[in-house]
Automatic annotation (TrEMBL), chain A:
It comes from Dyadobacter frigoris. The lineage of its organism: Bacteria, Pseudomonadati, Bacteroidota, Cytophagia, Cytophagales. This is Uncharacterized protein.
Automatic annotation (TrEMBL), chain B:
Residues 1-23 form the signal peptide. This is DUF4237 domain-containing protein. It comes from the Bacteria. Keywords: Signal.
């Protein structure tokens, strides 16, 4: 459980770092960055279905954004990994 | 002469009552806006009035601020909202958000990802996070000439599309379970599968979705058919073939 939380937090940090970089390139991405940061706090405070719904929301909302070729696949992979961790 | 005097008196009385009614009507509803201006600073009142002029329900807005424990945060949320539908979520004006369903949200998405054996390519799998947005899903290959559609305020070449043209914003919000916080529904795109090609997609019924974090009632019912195009399919060529067209409403 502790290991899982640690993995989740690590993935969030990675995701936020990538989104910060993407926001520098395209300020439109800032709103998604903020959304992810808020859900990171939410996921830390909750578990089970609420955490799953929060990350499901991150994934669905990410579809509204176009990321650079350098980061797009990685961003998607991280979100998928986050969901897999809470989808137990 | 007497008749004329009586008529004038009646007219004066009528105008007086109208004036008093007007001033009474103006003073009472303005009080909450004046109080908000005092609390949150100059410009607050005119900003809120602007939102109401643009279609936000004044009673619901007042109610939301009255019961809010953090009026500054609510004001900021309304200010940064991406559309009037998004604002209506913040003030819980459910009656004016098309497509939503009253009742308790129950998650009905797929519990795990899906593979298609005949494609034999894990990059084409429907991941668990995307499978959760489907109540059911099957692999499909769209034939040449097939058109698919997408309503968005952002990325034209995202993964989620529909085979049918949505008739209204309600079809998008409710039918394809898209939260107003995610999409301002401002643009419409079409993609047509080129001649001699097929497009590998996942196709199925949209799963239900919460309208906002922590809100169980109402919810977004889904139930419309949707299409998901795997990331690897949406390459540079795909993106060049996505065309903007007028919104269907």
């Amino acid at each position: 459980m502790v290991n899982e939380l640690s993995q989740i937090d690590h993935l969030f940090k990675e995701l936020i770092a990538l989104l910060s970089a993407e926001s520098q390139v395209d300020p439109y991405n800032v709103q998604f960055l903020k959304y992810v940061e808020e859900r990171r706090s939410l996921v830390k405070q909750t578990d089970g279905n609420q955490a799953k719904e929060a990350i499901r929301g991150i994934n669905r909302y990410s579809d509204e954004f176009a990321f650079s070729d350098a980061h797009a696949k990685k961003i998607k992979d991280i979100i998928d990994s986050l969901y897999d961790l809470v989808n137990c | 002469m007497k008749k004329k005097s009586v008529s004038l008196l009646l007219l004066w009385l009528l105008l007086s009552v109208s004036f008093i009614s007007c001033t009474d009507h103006d003073v009472e509803p303005q009080a909450w806006l004046n109080n908000l201006e005092t609390l949150l600073g100059q410009g607050t009142k005119s900003t809120v009035e602007g939102w109401i002029d643009a279609g936000l329900d004044d009673e619901k807005t007042k109610e939301a601020f009255d019961k809010s424990g953090d009026k500054a945060a609510l004001f900021n949320s309304l200010k940064t909202a991406i559309s009037i539908y998004d604002q209506r979520v913040y003030i819980e004006d459910w009656d004016h958000i098309p497509g939503i369903e009253k009742g308790n949200y129950v998650a009905n998405g797929l519990k795990s990802g899906v593979s298609n054996a005949s494609w034999a390519n894990p990059d084409l799998d429907l991941s668990a996070s995307d499978a959760a947005n489907f109540a059911d899903a099957k692999a499909d290959e769209l034939s040449a000439g097939t058109k698919i559609y997408r309503v968005t305020g952002g990325n034209p070449a995202g993964g989620y599309w529909t085979a049918q043209i949505p008739a209204s914003v309600g079809d998008v919000i409710g039918g394809t379970a898209v939260r107003p916080a995610w999409n301002n529904f401002s643009k419409f795109y079409v993609y047509e599968v080129p001649a001699g090609q097929t497009l590998k997609v996942w196709r199925g019924t949209t799963a239900a979705q919460q309208i906002a974090d922590g809100v169980i009632n109402p919810f977004l019912p889904g139930k419309a058919e949707q299409i998901f195009i795997p990331f690897v399919v949406r390459d540079a060529t795909f993106k060049t073939l996505v065309k903007e067209i007028p919104l269907p409403w």
